[in-house]
Amino acid sequence: MSDKQGQPKREPSAYTRLASAGAYGPGIGSALITMVEPHPGQEHAYNRWYEDAHQYH
Predict the structure, then answer these.
(1) 2-57, pLDDT tens digit by residue?
(2) Residues contacting 3, CB < 8 A, separation 6+
């Protein structure tokens, strides 16, 4: 297949396919792990936001 400019359509990466496959329901003994890279110079503000937003009591 091609797009409007005649370029071949790119297949999704293995990472993209992995994230869209499977049943990802919450359950005991499971975890959702993400990696976030704040913009340079914003690390302190990001960490402060994260700590404030993710306090579970």
Answers:
(1) 556 778 888 888 877 777 776 666 678 777 778 888 999 999 999 999 888 887 65
(2) 9
CA 32 – CA 22 distance, rounded (Å): 14
Which backbone phi and psi does 2 adopt, to 5 degrees? -135, 155
Tokens of 15: 């990472």
Phi, psi dihedral angles at 8 (to 5 degrees): -65, 145
Reduce the DSSP state of residue 43 to 3 states and report it. Answer: helix
Separation between Cα atoms, residue 45 and residue 38, nearest integer Å: 9
